[in-house]
Design a protein that fits this description.
Blueprint: H1 3-37, H2 44-68, H3 75-96, H4 103-123
């Protein structure tokens, strides 16, 4: 591998890492806002959607922190975090699909899941 190729790989790695962190932050915001709109203690289905939104916000926030801070995580630990985030985002998007007016939040979840998938691919 040439030095230029390795520099290009490093740039792509950093760009994908940043894109994933940004998607996680946007998803966390969207989920927190959506969860705040739902009535706590309301209908059972709405309460379940609210809890999924809160969980998704927390997982995305933790993933964003893992991607932006030097936490000493190895590649395997980071991969597990990303896979967890992707799974929670997809589950939350499906839950939001049942709620009128939650389209943007569901799309933020799906965008985050795609960003996690893309970054996992970069990790190799």
């Amino acid at each position: 591998m040439t030095q230029q190729t390795s520099q290009q790989d490093l740039y792509r790695f950093l760009e994908d890492r940043f894109a994933c962190a940004q998607a996680c932050a946007e998803c966390a915001r969207a989920c927190a806002l959506r969860a705040g709109v739902l009535d706590p203690g309301g209908a059972a289905q709405a309460e379940q959607v609210r809890r999924k939104g809160i969980m998704c916000a927390e997982v995305c926030d933790a993933t964003c922190r893992a991607l932006t801070e030097e936490t000493g995580r190895d590649e395997t630990g980071l991969r597990v975090q990303l896979e967890w985030c992707r799974a929670v985002c997809l589950e939350c998007a499906q839950a939001f699909d049942t709620q009128p007016g939650a389209e943007k939040s569901a799309e933020a979840c799906r965008a985050c899941a795609r960003a996690c998938t893309d970054f996992i691919t970069v990790l190799g």
